[in-house]
Amino acid sequence: MQNLLQCDQDLLQAAVYSLKAKAQSLSFGRYLYQLQKASNGDQVNSSCFWLKGQSMREDGFQHAQQGFLQEQMLYQQWSLQGHSFLLPHRFISVNQLDHRQLIQADHLHPQLLLLPHAESIFSQDSNQFTSSQIKALMIEIVSVLAQLTELGWLHADLKAGHFVRYQGQVRLLDFEQAVLIASAKRPPMNATPRYMAPELFHGQPKSVQSDLYALGIVLLEWLTAQRLQAHTYKDWAVLHCQRLTIDLPQQFIFFEPILRDMLAKQKTQRMRDFSQIKMRLISENV
């Protein structure tokens, strides 16, 4: 069953488009627009949409172009299979849009991806949750990631902003970097140092264990309310390979052993997969 987003042509024509792509994304030819009704001003609400497009210039950044095409393919494939970790979406022809609204865009791929606004799971302070609520949330998160790996894919770009809640369910965003687990050919390393497992700094390919590690970093930062700090790529390597410490606030101490097993420096010492984390969370009492 396809997970199609309901959005009429009038909204596409009447909405105010705000370019929200970061400078680095724009340098790769990636365009991200927020669409809102003019009467809503700058306030983000449930009627807000996001439109993602990619420049396909011949001299453009090919890795970003390939990632955009892959994400479109995966949305089409997984939507037909009815997977619940996807946001509802719709592919919009560039010809359906008011080109005057597409600020700075050129040589856009003819299809753009339209998604509804959804709140980041980790935007809310962890101190507002009980340990039981956090445990339930972690079970939801690892369940959707287990679905993904059962399909034979790594997300390969896990970060806090890629987990959202929509209509009461945890959903995943951004599949441009997704990697087939069984693929013998791995793409060039493209990862955010903040979330990189130690072995990635040594040239090893991404794996289920590196995705486990990335999720561990997301949870560590959220539960401690502290972002890891480093200035250079080398600094990040030293932090992850040598200096990372796991010291949770007393109210969340229950989760420390699980985080230690997700963030072990040697990937062979991490848990096997997301299903194992789920079973461990279910079997242990807060």
From TrEMBL:
Pfam family, one: Pkinase
PANTHER family membership: MITOGEN-ACTIVATED KINASE KINASE KINASE (PTHR24361)
SMART domains: S_TKc
Gene source species: Acinetobacter bouvetii
GO cellular component: cytoplasm
Protein name, entry field: Protein kinase domain-containing protein
Classification via InterPro entries: Kinase-like_dom_sf, Prot_kinase_dom, Ser_Thr_kinase
Record's signal peptide: none
Domain Protein kinase: 17-286
SUPFAM superfamilies, alphabetized: Protein kinase-like (PK-like)
Molecular function GO terms recorded: ATP binding; protein serine/threonine kinase activity
Record-linked Gene3D superfamilies: Transferase(Phosphotransferase) domain 1 (1.10.510.10)
